[in-house]
Amino acid sequence: MFGKLEHELEMHVPASEVWDLFGTLRIGQFVEQEMTELFQKVELIEGDGGVGTVLKLTFAPGIPGPTSYKEKFTKIDNEKRIKEVEVVEGGYLEHGFTLYRVTFHVIEKGEDSSALKSTIEYEVKEEDAANASLVSIEPVANIAQLAKNYFSRNKAAKEAKQ
């Protein structure tokens, strides 16, 4: 069984700023700092932020489901501003999923405007099809909203200094 969920959020900053966060290792640090209610720790296991980089995400105590998983950067296209990350160990793979991929696509809308399109694609074995209900776009939508708030705070701080 294959599924796909999407979310898009306008960002009121240039696409280059959004990509500097989502296209690099900074997103792991950002998630660890800003989403403490969901994630306890985000660790760099191997790599330098390029394709092949592996991160281990450990959930905060009390979060239902797996306690952690490892994800690998499988595609980074700096020109098109697309990054794909796949779960390679633990997490959804322990619940019958054969694929769990998150794609972030930063879309330029104008000089000071962009959008972040987040997509989750998954494949789950037929005998575990009921587990598809575990997939939610909400965590990536929350990351996008926290990033938008972060960019707004930074923009306001810069304007206040001028």
Write the SSE topology:
Elements: E1 2-11, H1 15-22, H2 26-34, E2 39-46, E3 54-59, E4 68-77, E5 82-90, E6 97-110, E7 113-124, H3 138-161
Antiparallel strand pairs: 1-7, 2-3, 3-4, 4-5, 5-6, 6-7
Task: Please describe what this structure looks like.
By secondary structure, the protein is an alpha+beta fold. The chain has a single domain (2-161), classed as 2-Layer Sandwich (Alpha-D-Glucose-1,6-Bisphosphate, Chain A, domain 4). 25% of the residues lie in helices and 43% in strands. It contains three helices and seven strands, in the order βααββββββα. It has helices at 15-22, 26-34, 138-161, and strands at residues 2-11, 39-46, 54-59, 68-77, 82-90, 97-110, 113-124. It has a seven-stranded antiparallel beta sheet. The longest helix has 24 residues, at 138-161. The protein is globular, with a radius of gyration of 16 Å. The mean pLDDT is 93.
In total, how many beta strands?
A: 7
Distance between the termini: 54 Å
Write down the CATH class: Alpha Beta
Rg, Å, rounded: 16 Å
SSE order, one letter for each helix or strand: EHHEEEEEEH
Counted by DSSP, the helix tally is: 3
Q: What summary fits the major beta sheet? A: 7 strands, antiparallel
| Level-2 CATH architecture | 2-Layer Sandwich
Q: How much helix is in the residues?
A: 25-40%
CATH-assigned fold name: Alpha-D-Glucose-1,6-Bisphosphate, Chain A, domain 4
- Low-confidence region ranges: none
Instruction: Count the domains.
Output: 1
Described by the principal axes of the CA atoms, the overall outline is: globular
Q: CATH H-level name... which superfamily? A: START domain
Order of strands side by side in the largest beta sheet?
A: 1-7-6-5-4-3-2
GO molecular function: abscisic acid binding; protein phosphatase inhibitor activity; signaling receptor activity
Family: Belongs to the BetVI family.
Domain Bet v I/Major latex protein: 3-131
InterPro entries: Bet_v_I/MLP, Plant_def-hormone_signal, START-like_dom_sf
